[in-house]
Amino acid sequence: MIRYDYLAVSETERNHGIGKQFVAIMRQKAIAEGYEMLIIEAESEMSPDNRRRMAFWQTCGFQLTAYIHTYIWVPETYQAMYLPLTDKVTEKHGEELFVYINTFHRLSFSGVKK
Q1: Model pTM?
Q2: DSSP β-bridge partners for residue 40
Q3: Using CA atoms, how far apart are residues 2 and 26, in angstroms rounded to an integer?
Q4: What's the distance, CA 2 to chain centroid?
Q5: Helical H runs in the chain?
Q6: Which tens digits make up the pLDDT trace of 14-66?
Q7: DSSP reduced 3-state for 97
Q8: What b/e string do you get for 54-79 counting C-beta neighbours within 10 Å, with b at 16 or more?
């Protein structure tokens, strides 16, 4: 499992393609390692900032799922987005993607290296 926690580009450096370049590198690495898709979680509240973030991911090819996920430990709600890397990937539903996302969180915060 390849794990990244956040992608951020400083406000002064945005709109120069840096984020898209990073996503392209992640995509190439995932394909080379045999992964079938990339999955992210995005804050689902429709604030202007969150809409811009979702739009960025969509311009990178990610597809937004309809399911809204609520964690018990944070007030924000989230939606899963995914980027198919092979033709094998069919439409995904948020509930199934949050199984992977929750595994990511559990491994990230447990100190286990995988």
Answers
A1: 0.84
A2: 81
A3: 9
A4: 12
A5: 18-32, 48-59, 94-110
A6: 899 999 999 999 999 999 999 999 999 999 999 999 999 999 999 999 999 99
A7: helix
A8: bebbeebebeebebebeeeeeeeebb
